[in-house]
Amino acid sequence: MFEQVSLLLVYRVLHPEPAQSSQPNIVIIVADDMGYHDVGFRGSPILTPHLDTLARSGVILENHIVSSICSPSRATLMTGRYPIHTGFWRGNLKPTEEFGLELEETLLPEMLKRKGYATHGVGKWHCGMHTWHHTPVARGFNTFFGLYLGEQGYFSHKKAGVLDFRENYTDDEGNIVDKIKYDLKGQYSTDLFSSRSVEIISNHGSSSINPLFLYLAYTAPHIPIEAPAEYVTQYAPHISEERREYATMISRMDHGVGMIVDTLVDQGMMDNTILLFMTDNGAYFKAHGSNYPLRGGKSSFLEGGVKSLSFVYSPLLEKSGYTNSHLHHLTDWYATFNNLAGPDMQPVSKPQLPLDGVNIWPSLSQNISCRDEILYELRDPTKRIDERGFRGLHESKKYPIREHEISFRAENSKYAQDFFVIRWKNWKLMTGTSLEIQGWDAESGMHEDYRGFLCGAQVHCKHALASGTLLFDLGADPREETNVAEHHPDIVDRLLGRKQDFLRGVKTMPYVRNSKEGKVKGVWRPWNEL
Questions:
Q1: Which end of the chain is less crowded, N or C, counting CB atoms within 10 A of the terminal residue's CB?
Q2: Which residues contact 160 (CB under 8 A, 6 or more apart)?
Q3: For position 7, what pLDDT does the model report?
Q4: How crowded is residue 216: how many other Cβ atoms within 10 Å of its Cβ?
Q5: Does 70 qualify as catalytic in the annotation?
C-alpha cells in the first residue's frame, strides 16, 4: 500500500555532492488547488513520501503568498508582476475570452532563454490562447506539452466536450507546430505530465552546454476529481471514502515528483538544480481539500486561500533542513531566477517592465529577511471599462465600508468588487466590498455545512460576500479569528495609506470580447490574428 521513497533519492538528499558553479538548472513544479494541509509533512494521512523527503531536507516556506485563483497566480509567476499590473486582477481567464498576458510582458521562459537556458513547459498554461502569439512556445518555451485552458478531464482531456491536449514546438522556419494528442485519450494526464518531464530531463542530460528550465504545472488535484481505480486501491484505502480520489490524485503526483528527482540524479544534474514546489492557491472546498489550520480557501484572500504549500530543495542552498518564516511572494521568483541565471547571452528584444518581486535567494539560502510588505489584491471597478465595471460602481454604493465592522449582504452582488488587501510584517488588512469571507477548514477536509464554511460560521449569513474592514495580527492570530481593527487605528491608517500608491499603477481593463471561434472541429485552438 505504501510507496517507498527511492533509496537513491534519500542518499543524495542526505549526502549531496559539492555544488557546481555554473548556471543552475531550474525546475518549478506547481500543484493545482492543493490544500495547505494535504501533504505528509503537515500531518496529513495523504501519502506524499517524495514531497516529504524533499521538503524536510530543503527549505519549507511558511509565508509564501500567491493569488487566490489559478490564472492570476500563473500570470504572476510568469512575469514577476502583481496582477494589478498585468490585468489579471480581473480574475480567472475563461476559455472564450480574447485576453492573455500582454505581448509587451517578458515572461520567465523568455528571460531564461535569453540567458542560454533550454526551456520546456509541461501541463497547464492558462495565461492566454486567443492568438498563437499568446501560446507557450511563442512566449519563450522551446517545447510545450499539455493544455492551454484551466481544467480538463483527466482521461478525456476535454474541456466542455472539446479536446485541449497538444504538443508544441517550432519548425526550422520558426512556425509553431501544433500536434493535437488524440491518441492519449484514456491515459491519465498526471502520469503523462510526469513521463514527459522525465523524458525532457533524460534528453537534456548533464552533458548539455545549456542549463535546463522545466516548468511542470500539474492539473492535480483540481476538479474534476478523477483517479484510476487501481491507484485509489494502492494509495488511499486508509482515507475516508469521500476524499479517496482527491488523496490519490496528490499521491500519484508525488510519485511523479519522485520519478523526476530520480532522473535528475541519474543524469548527474541534481547537484546543480534548484527545485521549487508550490501550490497556485488554497484548496477548493467542494473538492474536499484541507487548508487546516488556516481560514478560508480558494477564491478568498484569507490565508487558507493564498498561503501556498511550498518548499525549495537544492544542494546549492547554504542552509537547509529548516522552515523559513520570512515573507515571500510569487513575484519574487522571477527576480530571484533572473539573478541566479546570470547575464543575458542574446540581445534583448523588448524592455523589461518593472518587477514587483525581489531577489529572495539570501532569504532561502541564509534565512535573511528580504521584504516586509505584500500586496495581496486590489480591485477597483473604475479600472474596468466594461459592463462589470459600470455595474460594480453602482453596486458598491449600496454597501459602504463600515469602519471596524464586517457586514454580510442580504443579496449576492458579484459586481461590486472594490477592495484592498495588504500585509505589512505580521499585520494584514482586508477592507472594502465583495470580500469573500470563509470559515475554517477541518483537518479532515470535510465540512458538515457548506454555507457555514463560506460565511465564516455567521449564523444569518446567506452569502459569502461582505463589506467592512478587518485587521489581523498574523503573528498572534495565524487563524484570523480576531478582528483587531478597532484597537489599532494607527496600523489601519498606515496600511490604508498605501492604497493610493498602488491604485495609480492598476492596469485599466477594457471590454474583453468573448467568442466561440476557438472550438474548431472538436479541438480548442487560437482563433484570432493580431
A1: C
A2: 95
A3: 42
A4: 26
A5: yes
- To the query of whether residue 326 is one of the catalytic residues in this protein, the response is no
Out of 118-127, 374-383, 419-428, 494-503, pick the least confident: 374-383
* Cell numbers at 387, concatenated: 459592463
Write down the residue that cell numbers 522552515 correspond to: 323
Positive or negative: CA dihedral 230, 231, 234, 239:
negative
Strand partners, 430: 421, 470
Catalytic residue among 37, 50, 70, 447: 70
- Integer Cα distance of 140 and 106 in angstroms: 9
Cell numbers that stand for 359 in this block: 531577489
Q: What is the pLDDT of residues 217-276, one digit of tens each?
A: 999 999 999 999 999 999 999 999 999 999 999 999 999 999 999 999 999 999 999 999
Return the closest-CA partner of residue 307 out of 293, 287, 321.
293
Catalytic option among 126, 130, 255, 326: 126
Cell numbers for 297: 480557501
Query: What is the signed CA dihedral for 55, 59, 60, 63, rounded to 10 degrees?
Result: -160
pLDDT digit string, tens, across residues 268-312:
999 999 999 999 999 998 888 999 999 989 999 999 999 999 999
pLDDT for 50 equals: 98
Nearest to 28 by CA among 240, 229, 260: 260
Q: Say how far apart CA 197 and CA 193 lie, in whole Å.
A: 6
What separation in angstroms does the CA of 128 have from each of 101, 518, 528?
A: 6, 12, 12
Compute the mean pLDDT over every residue in the chain, rounded to the nearest whole number. 89
161 conformational bin, left if phi > 0, alpha if psi -120 to 50, beta if neither:
left
Compute the distance between CA of residue 189 and CA of residue 195 in angstroms, rounded to an integer.
10
Residue range 323-342: mean pLDDT, rounded: 98
Question: For residues 227 and 254, what is the distance between their CA atoms, to the nearest angstrom?
Answer: 14
Is 476's pLDDT higher than 60? yes
Q: How far apart are CA 416 and CA 342, in angstroms?
A: 45
- Helix axis angle for 49-57 and 244-266, nearest 10°, is 60
Question: What percentage of the chain exceeds 90 in pLDDT?
Answer: 75
Q: Find, among 186, 195, 110, 118, the residue nearest to 154 by Cα.
A: 186
